[in-house]
Amino acid sequence: MKKYWFLLVCLIALLCTACSNDSSDEKKSEYLVVYSGEIKTLNYLKTSETNEFAVAANLVDGLIEYDKYGVVQPGLAKEWTSNEDATVWTFKLRDDVKWVTHDGKEYADLVAQDFVDGLNYVLDAKNESSTVWSATVVKNGEAFYNGDMTDFSKVGIKATDKHTVEYTLEAPTPYFLSMLNYVCFFPVNGEFLVEKGEKFGTTREDFLYNGAYILDKFEPQNERVLVKNDTYWDQENVLIDRIRYKYNKEAATVAPELFLRGEVDSASIPTSIIDEWFNDDKKKSQVRQTQNNFYTYFYALNFDPQFDAEYEPENWKIAVNNKDFRKSLYHALDRVSAMLTVEPYNPQDMLSNTVTPRNFVDVAGVDYTLLAPLEPITSSDSFNKDLALEFKEKAKATLEGKATFPVKVLMPYNSGSPDWANRTQVIEQQIEKLLGADYVDIIVEAGPSTGFLSEVRRPGKFALLEANWGPDYADPSTYTEPFSVDGTYNKPELAEGYKEANGKTTYQNLIDEAKATIDTAERYDLFARAESFLIEEAFVIPYAVGGSGYVASKLNPFEAQYSPFGVTSEKFKGQQVLDKPMSNDEFKEALAKWEQERAEALVNATK
Hints:
Blueprint: H1 2-27, E1 30-35, H2 50-56, E2 64-66, E3 72-74, E4 77-82, E5 88-93, E6 98-100, E7 106-109, H3 113-123, H4 132-135, H5 141-146, E8 157-161, E9 164-168, H6 176-179, H7 190-196, E10 213-219, E11 223-228, E12 242-247, H8 251-260, E13 266-269, H9 271-278, H10 281-284, E14 288-289, E15 296-301, H11 313-320, H12 323-332, H13 335-339, E16 362-363, E17 366-367, H14 375-378, H15 385-398, E18 407-414, H16 418-435, E19 440-447, H17 452-457, E20 464-469, H18 477-480, H19 506-515, H20 520-536, E21 540-545, E22 550-553, H21 584-605
Parallel strand pairs: 1-12, 18-19
Antiparallel strand pairs: 2-3, 4-5, 5-9, 6-7, 8-9, 10-11, 11-12, 13-22, 14-22, 15-20, 15-21, 16-17
Signal peptide: 1-18
Membrane topology: Lipid-anchor
Family: Belongs to the bacterial solute-binding protein 5 family.
C-alpha cells in the first residue's frame, strides 16, 4: 500500500509541476503579427530598408536612444560631451554591456573599438553600405570612402580608451547627437565581423546581439521570432518576452480577420473595409487611427529611366526633361482623391505640400516650412486644373516633333500593399481624365512585395513612382540630401539645362551652400531655398506624411520610444501587450494628453 501511496504522491507532484510550468508559460508576454515583405539581410551596417533595420533595431543598441516624448536618453553611452563648435564629440560607454550569440552565450564585452570597427565597415566602399552618405559627416570619412585616403586611423573616430569613443567631424554639427540614432553609427564586434566575412547578418547564427532581443528563429517566408535577451543591460524596460512574425503573402488582406479571431495582435485595416469596422459595434471598439509620423511621401519623376523598351524610356526621357510637361503632372495630381484610399474621413490632414514635413524643425519658433522661400508652397495646393491644362498645352507645343504623344508613364506599385494598389488606379484614372489619354498613358504595373526597393526603385524601373523618405537626424538636410548628386532618388541632377559654371547643378550648389553654413537661421533659410527650387521645378511632387490609416492593435503607441528620425520608433522596448485594443476615442484622448506632456518635456529638456 505504501508503494502505491508513494507513486500517487509522485504523480500529483509531477502534475503540479506541469501545471506550474504551464502557468509560467501563460504569463509570458507575446506579441504576434503577420507580414508579407520579407527581409533579405540582418546586416544593419549595410541596409537602408525600413523592414530590415526595424528588426536589427531590436537586436543591437546604439549610443543614444529616446524616451516616449522624444527626449534623448543614454543608450550604450552613459554620458557625452562636445566642444564649443560641435566638431568633437566624446562618449563614455557603459561597462556592463555584453555581446551574445544567437543562443544567449556571452561572446565579448562591448568596447569603444566596436564603434570604430562599425564605422570602418560602413565607410569601406567594397561593402556597399546604403547609409554611407550619413556617415561621411565624420572627418575624412568621404575621402576614405572614395579611396582618396587608405589609412582609416586618419578618419575622425577613435577609441581613446576601452570605454571612450571620440568623433571628430568635418564641420560643426550641432545635430550630430540625433544622427547616432541611425544604423550606420551602430557598433559591431570586429573579431566576429572578420570571422564571418560576407556571411555576417545572413542568418541568426552569423550575428551578435547586445540589444533587448535575440533572434530565436529566422526562417524566411515562414517565421521569425525575437526573444528577450537575458543579458540585456536594461532588462526591466523590456516588457514583451517574445515577438513572433508569421509570413503570409496575403498578410495585408488576411490580417484584419486574423485579428478578430485573436490569432494576431495587430493589423492594418485597409480603407476598403474601414466603414464596415466603424459601423459594427464590436469592431468599432477595436480600431483606431495611427499616429502621424515624419516619413514624407512624394511622387518622384525619374530622369534616368531603366525600364523595358515597350514602355518607351527614351520618349519618357525627352518628356520629363521638359519643365512644362513636369508642371502639367505636378498640377494635375489630385492628392485628396489619392489620399482617400488611406484616410477616407480627413484626407487633408495627411497632405504635405513640402518634402520636409511641418513641425520637424523651427527657427526661433517659426516652422521651417513657413520660412519665406517655402511659405507660398506650404500655404497652397499644388492641384490646379487650370494650371495643369495650361502647362499641358505649353508642353505639347515645345515638344512637337521631339516627343511622341501620348507619353507612356510607367507607374509601378508594391503588390504587398492593397492601399497602394488602389491609389495607383485612382491616380491613373484621375490624371488621364484631366490631361487626356491622348497626352499621357499612365501604365500601372504590380511590383514585388519583397525587394521592391532594390528591384524597382533603385534600378530606376519607373517613370513616376510613389516614394517615401524618413529623417535620420534633426536638420533639414536629412530631407534635401536624398535628391542630391550622391542621393538615392530620382536623379534630378541628370535633368538637362541645370548645370552651372562650376559643373554642378543649381540644386546641388544650393545644397552645398546650405551645408557649409553654421548659423542656424541662415542655414535653414538656404535649405528652404533649395527645397523650394526642387518643388518649383517639379522634380518631385510632395504628397503626404506617413502614419495615415487605421489599425487594430494591442500596443499603446504612447508607451513606445519616440523620435522623428532614426530607428527609435521601430523598437519594442518600453511597450507592453494590452488586454484589449485601444478604441479611436481612447486614442484621441491619449494623443491629446501625450502632446501636452511632450511639449512640457521638450521645454524641460532645454533648461
